[in-house]
Design a protein that fits this description.
Layout lengths: L15 H50 L6 H6 L6 H15 L9 H21 L2 H33 L4 H55 L12 H12 L7
Helix pairs in contact: 1-5, 1-6, 3-4, 3-6, 4-6, 5-6
Subcellular location: Cell inner membrane; Membrane
Family: Belongs to the exbB/tolQ family.
InterPro entries: ExbB/TolQ_transport (IPR050790), MotA_ExbB_proton_chnl (IPR002898)
Length: 253
């Protein structure tokens, strides 16, 4: 029968570190996997939040001044170089310029729309990167913790069998190790699930705004600038757009 290693006076012989040392390679591996998963989940949460916040701030800039510009090139120049909204505009303008190079041309509006849609989809894919990891951690972490729990309980039963009786000294370490793994699995899984759902919801709102903007850009391009959204325009600008859009529409200033 083995006895617990003597602890220093005042030290807790059944704490986390002693439990991991006694648990061996399996317990240490489970603990490492869960801690790394938690750390990566937190990193993804903050990095994706910052990425989303940048696009939200870009959307405010678009609503404020983008559509008041005389043309798309001038409007794009007001946006940050790495702006998601500028990427959509630049890809649309590039598609418009290259349309005449097609050997088997399709309608220009279809070609431009296809290019803008691809650009918007690529932004959505970038926003969604990292979320599958959060979903995986949220689903798997409790079972990884449960595996550590099973190993701890098994070790406790082995000690009981070797000692011939269920003494506290024999089972305290393995049972404590099992409880630690259970708690750590939950601590890792719950934040990952909450972060996944929260980021997914924000992505949905952001993509709705991007799709609406892409539709506005497409309408502007295929109408030669006659169709544009009303926000960001003065009353005089709104009246001018409405009047030139069809030649018969009139608006009240």
């Amino acid at each position: 029968m083995t006895t617990p290693t003597a602890a220093a006076p005042g030290a807790n012989p059944y704490g986390l570190i002693p439990a991991l040392k006694e648990g061996g390679l399996i317990s240490q591996s489970v603990f490492t996997i869960l801690v790394l998963s938690l750390a990566i989940s937190i990193f993804i949460l903050f990095s994706k939040w910052l990425e989303q916040q940048r696009i939200i701030n870009q959307a405010k800039k678009v609503r404020g001044s983008f559509w008041s510009s005389p043309n798309l090139r001038d409007a794009a120049g007001k946006l940050d170089k790495n702006s998601a909204y500028r990427q959509i505009v630049d890809d649309g303008l590039l598609a418009e310029e290259q349309h005449h190079l097609l050997t088997d041309p399709i309608d220009q509006h279809e070609w431009v729309q296809s290019s803008i849609s691809r650009s918007t989809a690529s932004i959505g894919a970038k926003l969604s990167s990292g979320l599958p990891f959060l979903a995986t951690v949220g689903s798997v972490a409790p079972f990884v913790g449960l595996f550590g729990t099973v190993v701890g309980i098994y070790r406790a039963l082995i000690k009981i069998g070797a000692a011939g009786q269920a003494s506290i000294d024999a089972v305290a370490g393995p049972v404590g190790e099992a409880l630690i793994m259970t708690a750590l699995g939950l601590i890792t899984a719950v934040p990952a699930v909450l972060a996944y759902n929260w980021l997914l919801r924000r992505n949905k709102v952001i993509m709705e705004g991007l799709f609406a903007f892409a539709n506005d850009v497409h309408g502007y391009m295929v109408s030669e600038g006659k169709v544009r959204p009303a926000y960001g325009l003065t009353k005089a600008g709104q009246a001018k757009v409405a009047t030139t859009a069809s030649g018969v529409q009139t608006t009240k200033a």
